[in-house]
Design brief:
alpha/beta
């Protein structure tokens, strides 16, 4: 059974993120970043980022007190949203700064030679807005 499975898929259906404080995360993703909620329950909020559903899941009493995201542990490193307009990249980078959201400003990815801005959510989960 050494044959690859060769999954046929149109892409990512959804990404689920565990958050430490649902109210704080909703304020960040909905009020600051401006994503529109499509499902709102006490321990589950879903919004679309482009065509991908992003689910925020509350801690459900199983998250260690004081736990923070670390991109250097096994698991998620970051989430990158595509950007197909340089002016939009500039606008979002400035808006992140204006909203005092921790970010890198616009940088050039040395591997792909594409511009991006990286930022962190309230749990320090790393995101990028990345030129396509």
């Amino acid at each position: 059974m050494d044959m690859p499975i060769q999954i046929k898929t149109p892409g990512v259906h959804h990404v689920a993120i565990r958050v430490s404080d649902m109210a704080n995360s909703k304020a960040f993703y909905i009020d600051k970043l401006g994503f529109k909620i499509i499902l709102d329950q006490p321990e589950l909020v879903i919004f679309f980022a482009g065509n991908t559903a992003i689910a925020l899941k509350g801690p459900e009493g199983k998250v260690a007190s004081g736990d923070q995201f670390n991109p250097f542990r096994v698991g998620l490193d970051h989430i990158a949203l595509g950007c197909d307009d340089p002016a939009e990249l500039q606008r979002v980078a400035q808006a992140l700064k204006d909203h005092a959201i921790e970010n890198t400003g616009i940088k050039k990815d040395p591997t792909l030679q594409k511009d991006y801005v990286a930022f962190k959510d309230p749990d320090r989960i790393s995101w990028e807005f990345y030129s396509v």
